[in-house]
Amino acid sequence: MTVVSPSVTASAEAVSPAHVDAVLARAAAGERLDAAGAETLLGARGEQFDRLLELAGRLRDAGLAASGRPGVITYSRKVFVPLTTLCRDRCHYCVFVDTPGQLLKKHKPAYMSPEQVLAVVRQGQSMGCKEVLLTLGDRPEERWPEARAWLDQHGFASTIEYVAHIARLVTAETGLLAHANPGVMTAEDLRMLRPVAPSMGMMLETTSRRLYEEPGQVHFGSPDKDPAVRLEVIEAAGRERVPFTTGILVGIGETVRDRAESLVAIREVHERHPVGGQGHVQEVIVQNFRAKPRTAMQGAPDAELLEYVAAVAVARLVMGPRMRIQVPPNLSDATEFGLLVRAGADDWGGVSPLTADHVNPERPWPHLDDLARMTAELGFELRERLTAQPEFVLNAEPWIDPALRPAVAALADPATGLAAPSSAARSSQRYAPDRESRTSVTNGLVGDATRPETTGAGGAGDRTGSRSARRLAEAAAADPLALDDAEWLALLEATGDDLDALAATADDLRRYTVGEAVTLVVNRNLTSTGLRAVSSDDPATFTLDDAGAIAADAWDLGASELCVQGLLPAGKDPSGYLDIARAVKAAAPGIHLHAYRPQDVRDLAHRSGLGLEGALVAMREAGVDTVPGTGVKILSERVRGLVAPADLEIDRWVEAITAAHRAGFRSTSVIFYGHVETAAERIAHLRQLRAIQDETGGFSEFVPIPLPGPAGGVPLVPGRTPLDEHRAMVAVSRLLLSGSIPHVQIPWTRVGRDAAAVLLQSGGDDLGGTLLDGRVKPEAGIEFGQELPVADATAMVARLFRPFRLRTTTYGQVGPR
Description:
globular; alpha/beta; 817 residues
């Protein structure tokens, strides 16, 4: 199938600078833009582009002042729930949807069950989320018999009816508010959803009929992408008084004229349905196309930056000062935020501290603290809103269904209509059922029909039976803090069918929180113990000049990270730690330096006389970016004394890692298991890591590392295979740390590639690093001889039918060099 390139704007007729000037002048005078004028301004470049942005920014500022929140950019703290990935459409840029065959290969249900939804939502609730974004494919039952069968089996006439059921359940059980985004809806659908969702949405995308009707174009063969049908949905939402989100998608093959007409069409529908002078479109999203692998458009270029920014600015001018113009922050590089804000954007949309962007899995959300900082650097304050924009919350009577007004009011600041600062705590107190009632509610709901109940013996099954083991795992997925130590031990010691149920539940939790993507960082190791003043014949040693050459070589090979750790020799000047960092950054300024375990930091602090805080400051100044949270086996003095007496004492390790986090360093976290530790000590270790994370928020990932060797370490359960030992450890780690430490890394160097693939289906989402040996002093790394080339990792993940993406050390998007 041929897909037309989205880069069609170059073929548009050139517009004279004088004409652009004239349209800019009319817009500055307050004249209403028609499609022709909008088309003209979409082509502005150079000095005229700057004037366009200035005009759009002024208009946005005036609107914010008129709304009573000058200088405020908003966002919604949300949980993203992909209720089903089945769809009847065939959009050429989409990786969200699955076929029934793909679902089977992924061991993925046709629809998320209520238990699965509530498990994710409750974790989001504990992290302060107020919005539950229900996103799904369009009417899958009209294409796929499997979807129709699932709905029939569970008593729902349609997918929309199931959406309404879930939205009602979410608010009743947690107090959070649903934003329904189920695609094309009829007026009857809108009426069904209005009492359970205070806002709804559907992207118009474009009014281009060519993209819908012409073979090879992005919407051909997708009945729900008929522009006339989508405009009628927005029209019906106005008649039904639904606060509605819509927008355009930039760069999918539309012309500049198409963009202009799409924006004007949204404005016209919005203005046809005012209530008290207020139209129903609450926000217009201007979203940039990002090519995705495994799609027909995977080779198409992303939306060109200046074209995208111009579309944002023109959207502001077309829609006026009081409309919220939203730009998704994960679809742009942070360096581009300034342009988007200059262009008149005033809303970042929904951002989740818990769940991935399941529609754009290759684009992680920015951390909310980082988003607040970057917004402040641009001269604005970041404020949280609800899923319904403040104007609709403050004027609730015509817009919010009476059944929902108490729930909306419980989360809103009555003065501003934004999210109330203390609403998370109030919501938790008011709506979180106690443990007994939660279990009874969950068990009475629809289960996952794709996984039949099984019976088995061994581990948790000996005490509670297989059905109870599954429910125990589901309870853990809903609230990790609800289980006591005995229940966690039962899960950690599960075997047979119980272990299968545990691993499946953990993997579902992984799927519906951090998402389907498997990540990898391109990196190289360097063991700092090998530093010498002069060169030697020992291939594991290196000089400072070598350190710089190693860093430069790694960068040239595509690495984004250099990991350095290990105690310097006792007689070596402790300034060597800092000298290595300086040498690395001097030779490869762009490389991320992930360096020095708590024990190494303590050594620098003690022998240099800097003290712990001084050592951390010196490391930052020398170029260290993040620190490894290694150098500890189990957070137990009993275990340390038996297997690693030379390791840092546990309380000193905790003090050092906590100090590093407070100094602004993020870190990994680990467990080395299979030694002499008990199951209870493993659980205590995980709980303590979670407690540190609650205090500092500094852990990026958790790595469960088994004792090396063919036996795979000492098993907790006699006779349990090494692979099953690892499955249990990974699954329990995912469940117990969920909502706290987001990523679970599979140490492929310890378990092997085949086992790593299995563990990625037990709750894991990351493969660590490529561990390049490099061409300079390759044996100077602690894991010399073990490499995972990107091509090999990509092939491994492809066999799991999951997307693969390269990441930064802190799980961000790898940017252009």
